[in-house]
């Protein structure tokens, strides 16, 4: 038996030697991080978890305004952390305006207005909160200009922030601005049909107006463009020019849950049906990259596809621009081989190598209408059911659609 065990040990040693010969390592030992560093990272992770979970419970309404939350000791026991970690988390939520600490009584969920403000001081405040999506977006800048024009003429000031398509930032800024403003104008996040922080505003009766898009599962005041009409007009234009295979393209930045995208899609489908143009899945160009994570290869591959549509209606001007650049890289001619129509009419649209046919939105007017509606809500000039304001769009015909070629060609030429 000992002889057999000895043979097995020798075989094991040989195997280890062989393994190390083909998988060399510098040190055959476990390297552990310093205990203090590991503990600090664990505590930071727990701190973040406590802040996130308490914030979510407050904004969802699970922890109601004015309610007393658990003591530091109880929270520390629940999360198995020190009271110091809990104290830091509660301090962060207090800075965000979600909690207030009352000496000798405990920590409470803060009411929609700070405890030290009275009805006498609130009217003098006259602030409007605005949370838009991106600081560098041209439509956002037009919206802000329009909002400022509307509210300043009524004696209000604007405090604004940007969500950068981050739900935690949006929820935090809603909670913060709710404490110092009389109402909010909000640009909802993409790819969702509802939002818990915005729903909470409606539940507590805090005035707000949505701009650019609405939330499908929440009936509220909003001001938007006629996205369905714009989508219909763009597609109709391509059909009238003679195109039979007309595609619809959108990026990951906004899918069909984003109501502005969905409504443009519905206008596109309506025009196809009315002009008896066929539709199949190859005409729907989805999952395209965003301006935050551009990928030229995907646009190039789409343009090279053998079943590529002869014309494409893109959900916005940025997607249209990327197709025009992809066409230039791959030798596809715009509009001779591929016609393009965008949506937005951004400042660069008419200055492209092939000026872009697009659907224009009234960004400044949208902002002005939103500001006016919100103040009318605040001052009780508008009461009752939610107001839905839809502003008309306009098709701007330039060269990318092929209309000019159509006009210049002889009657015997094939339409582009």
Structure description:
By secondary structure, the chain is an alpha/beta fold. It has 14 helices and 14 strands. The strands form 3 sheets. Strands 4-3-5-6-7-13 form a 6-stranded parallel beta sheet, sandwiched between helices. Helix 3 (72-79) crosses helix 4 (83-95), helix 6 (138-152) packs across helix 13 (363-378) and helix 11 (296-304) packs across helix 12. The radius of gyration is 29 Å and the shape is elongated.
Distance between the termini: 89 Å
Count of domains: 3
Instruction: State the helical fraction.
Output: 40-55%
CATH class of the largest domain: Alpha Beta
Lateral strand order in the biggest sheet: 4-3-5-6-7-13
Average pLDDT for all residues: 84
Order of SSEs, N→C? Answer: HHHHEEHEHEHEHEEHEHEHEHEEHEEH
Number of strands: 14
Main sheet makeup:
6 strands, parallel
CATH superfamily of the largest domain: Response regulator
DSSP strand (E) fraction?
15-25%
Low-confidence stretches: 12-35, 113-124, 412-416
Shape: elongated
**Alpha plus pi helix count:** 14
CATH architecture of the largest domain: 3-Layer(aba) Sandwich
SS class: alpha/beta
What fold name goes in the CATH topology slot of the largest domain? Rossmann fold
CA gyration radius, whole angstroms:
29 Å
Domain HTH gntR-type: 44-112
Keywords: DNA-binding, Transcription, Transcription regulation
Protein name: GntR family transcriptional regulator
Which key phrases capture this entry?
Rossmann fold, 3 domains, six-stranded mixed beta sheet, disordered C terminus, 15% strand, 14 helices, elongated, alpha/beta, six-stranded parallel beta sheet, Arc Repressor Mutant, subunit A, 416 residues
